[in-house]
Amino acid sequence: MAGFDKVVSSYEEAMDGLTDNMTIIAGGFGLCGIPENLISEIKRKGTKSLTLVSNNCGVDDFGLGVLLPNRQIKKIVASYVGENAEFERQMMAGELAVELTPQGTLAEKMRAGGAGIPAFFTATGVGTPVAEGKEERSFNGRDYILEEAIVGDFAIVKAWKADRYGNLVFRKTARNFNPLAATAGKITVVEVEELVEVGELDPDQIHTPGIYVNRVIQGSFEKRIEQRTTRPADEAEGKGE
Amino acid sequence: MALSREQIAQRVAQELKDGYYVNLGIGIPTLVANYVPEDIEVMLQSENGLLGMGQFPTVDEIDADLINAGKQTVTMAKGASVFDSAESFAMIRGGHVDLTVLGAFEVDVNGNIASYMIPGKLIKGMGGAMDLVAGADNIIVTMTHASKHGVSKLLKSCSLPLTGKGCIKKVLTDLAFIEIKEGKFHLLERAPGVSVKDIIQLTEGELVVTGDIPEMKL
């Protein structure tokens, strides 16, 4: 690597330094915009006792779900889980700790972690199980709970395009948690569909500046769809919202 | 007759106003999109990071990078925008969404809502529901009035762990449209053919009935 060139040539290199008991923040929503090859590399490496921070935990054979059969995950911090049988089994058996976190709070925890803000107050979760054990404070007559930021030893991110300096562009709703995860990793690793030369991306259109990114790798993606919903083609000219 | 899922959605759609930004939860709320009156414009917010959700794609239009919060493939309406999850919840928590429609297991007379967790059963999580109920001022809860066994879901006090405290003001069930204020349920409308007596019987929390209660128009 030279200067700001963040590009690595193998997935092994991309996840170098990941060891047991680390915390990984992962981008993605459901199976959309997940760093699928970086997840595969973690599976291949066999790293254990990981804490995963991600909105969801994939399905049985795809996404973060692939880390379950070999018991690589010790704990998951997520807003919605249980789309896979092995997850359910491990959770019910007490083999996997699950910290359910409201989706907006999860996003904000990552954002705060990346921005050097240790904690923040939010109305989300007041009076619910989420508030248990958390400091509560009133501002302007409304109650809020204190939520702590999250920083990962690693952040794993999927972007659409990157240049060699790690400037990132995401595509449609595959953006989701990815830009937030990117800011919150001590080591942020990004895999992309398209790698371009420095200067090719319009600076006005960059979603994540390269300063947050440590490693970039170009991959090829399955991009599996979780719920394939369609309308008939003959209605294509029909009423839109 | 109790309302069907579609009819509940149809009635909720009557609450939409021109220029509303609306977040629709999974299930019955999603169906509301099918009944937006022709003469108004609303924009649907999907909390995974899309404002201006369109209809489902044709087979040719399917894009793995474009889904809604229910993980279904969708399209973008004209004028749509996409953004990250923190931005999405800034809209929600900041009170910028005009109407939120979501489902529930229970609501009570104090506006508490339980919608994500049944202890002892598999807990899948709250997703964005806690943020939505805490952030929105205008929320409509859609649910069945009672369980299949006739056990009321409109309670004196929620028995399940809460999704939000004191945040629900309107509930549309298969039997009735109800407002919650001052620690009581207030009956606004009844489903066609459903009597006030039936509704009272299936409402555990105190229900205020004032004057003649009109039937819903669908």
Helix-strand layout with pairing:
The complex is a heterodimer of chains A (241) and B (218).
Chain A: H1 11-14, E1 23-26, H2 36-45, E2 50-53, E3 73-78, H3 85-92, E4 97-100, H4 103-115, E5 119-122, E6 136-139, E7 142-148, E8 152-163, E9 168-169, H5 178-183, E10 185-196, E11 215-218
Parallel strand pairs in A: 1-2, 1-8, 2-3, 3-4, 8-10, 10-11
Antiparallel strand pairs in A: 5-7, 6-7, 8-9
Chain B: H1 5-13, E1 20-24, H2 28-31, E2 42-46, E3 50-53, E4 76-82, H3 85-93, E5 99-103, E6 106-108, E7 113-114, H4 129-135, E8 139-143, E9 154-155, E10 170-173, E11 176-181, E12 184-190, H5 196-201, E13 207-208
Parallel strand pairs in B: 1-2, 1-5, 5-8, 6-9, 8-10, 12-13
Antiparallel strand pairs in B: 2-3, 3-4, 6-7, 10-11, 11-12
Keywords (chain A): Transferase
GO molecular function, one term (chain A): succinyl-CoA:3-oxo-acid CoA-transferase activity
Protein name (chain A): 3-oxoacid CoA-transferase, A subunit
Task: Describe this structure as you would to a colleague.
The complex is a heterodimer of chains A (241) and B (218). Chain A is of the alpha/beta class. Chain A has a single domain, classed as 3-Layer(aba) Sandwich (Glutaconate Coenzyme A-transferase), CATH 3.40.1080. Chain A contains five helices and eleven strands. In chain A, strands 1, 2, 3, 4, 8, 9, 10 and 11 form an eight-stranded mixed sheet that branches. In chain A, helix 2 links the parallel strand 1 and strand 2. The longest helix of chain A is centred in the middle third of the chain and has 13 residues. Chain B has 218 residues and is α/β, with parallel strands linked by helices. Chain B has a single domain, classed as Glutaconate Coenzyme A-transferase (3-Layer(aba) Sandwich). Chain B is 16% helix and 26% strand. In chain B, the strands form two sheets. In chain B, strands 4-3-2-1-5-8-10-11-12-13 form a ten-stranded mixed sheet, with helices on both faces. In chain B, strand 2 and strand 3 form a beta hairpin. The radius of gyration of chain B is 17 Å and the shape is globular. Chains A and B meet through helix 3, helix 4 and helix 5 of A and strand 2, strand 3, strand 4, helix 3 and helix 4 of B. Chain B: Its EC number is 2.8.3.5. Chain B: GO terms for molecular function: succinyl-CoA:3-oxo-acid CoA-transferase activity. Chain B: InterPro entries: 3-oxoacid_CoA-transf_B, CoA_trans_fam_I, CoA_transf_AS, NagB/RpiA_transferase-like.
